Amino acid sequence: MTSMLSGALMYTVLVANAAAMITNVDQAAKAYNNKMNHLDDYMTFLKLPNELRLRIQNYYQARYGGRWFDEKNFLISVSTALREEILTVMCLSLLNNVPMFQNRDMNFLSTVLLQFQHEVFQEDDVIFQRNTPGDRMFFIEHGQVLVETDSFPQELADGDYFGDSCLVTKGKRMDTVRALTTCQLFSLSSDRFQMVLQGFPDIRRDMEKLAKQDYEDMINL
User: Fold this and answer.
1) β strands within 56-189, DSSP E
2) If pLDDT is split at 50, 70 and 90, which confidence band does 207 have?
3) Other Cβ atoms within 10 Å of 76 Cβ, number
4) What are phi and psi of 161, to 5 degrees?
5) Confidence (pTM)
6) Are 86 and 113 in contact (CB under 8 A)?
7) d(Cα 112, Cα 101) in Å, to the nearest integer?
8) Nearest 5°: CA angle at 139, between 137 and 144?
9) How many other C-beta atoms lie within 10 A of the C-beta of residue 91?
């Protein structure tokens, strides 16, 4: 009798836990479906063409994967220490792939990571065009892009980066970059980066020197 009661109790606990997990998943999916229903109503109100509506729907699917969550509020709600740890786990390897960030002080890198923004681009999206003002650089978490240069096109994929020439100088874009697939990217704006450099004057001078050298090398090509 004791064994039967213990078994029944364990079964009840397992069922309750499973039901709770399903409920949590359903809540995220339900929130996503509600958001998409509101979005559909709004797009209908705007009388957007079907092709554009489909691209917007595909963007939300790529961005959230059928589950709605507020990423910005989540990162704001946790402590700075936890936010640094989350972004370090997610993005430090991307930052370390860039020569200008290699062998830098960890406090500097952590401060830079706090400025990262997550962005999603769909296939055939133009991420930026040549001769437009450069306002941020990009790190590829997942996806493929095509860098269209004067000499030859270059494909970049997971772990690569682009747009770094504008980070210190905020100069014009030298290339056009287009998404070949749905791309999950992190961006670092030049304005935010300049704010970080104010707290690290030695690194600022070093990076300005490197940027000047890169510019002179480009002119001499």
Assistant:
1) 117-121, 126-128, 136-142, 145-148, 154-156, 161-162, 176-179, 183-189
2) confident
3) 9
4) -145, 165
5) 0.77
6) no
7) 10
8) 115
9) 19
In angstroms, the CA 30 to CA 17 distance is 20
Residue position matching structure tokens 């990009």: 138
Are the CB atoms for 156 and 144 separated by under 8 Å? yes
Q: Which residue has the tokens 């397992």?
A: 14
Q: What type of residue sits at position 74?
A: F
Give the tens place of pLDDT for each residue, 161-193: 999 988 887 788 989 999 999 999 999 999 999
Q: 148 has which bridge partners?
A: 176
> Tokens 């979005």 — which residue?
39
Task: Work out the angle at residue 25's Cα, subtended by the Cα atoms of residues 19 and 26, and round it to the nearest 5 degrees.
Answer: 85
Identity at 157, one-letter amino acid code: A
Q: Give the tokens for residue 182.
A: 């749905």
The tens digit of pLDDT for each residue in 88-143 reads 998 999 999 999 999 999 999 999 999 999 999 999 999 999 999 999 999 999 99
Please name which of 179, 206, 218 lies closest in space to residue 99, comparing C-alpha atoms. 206
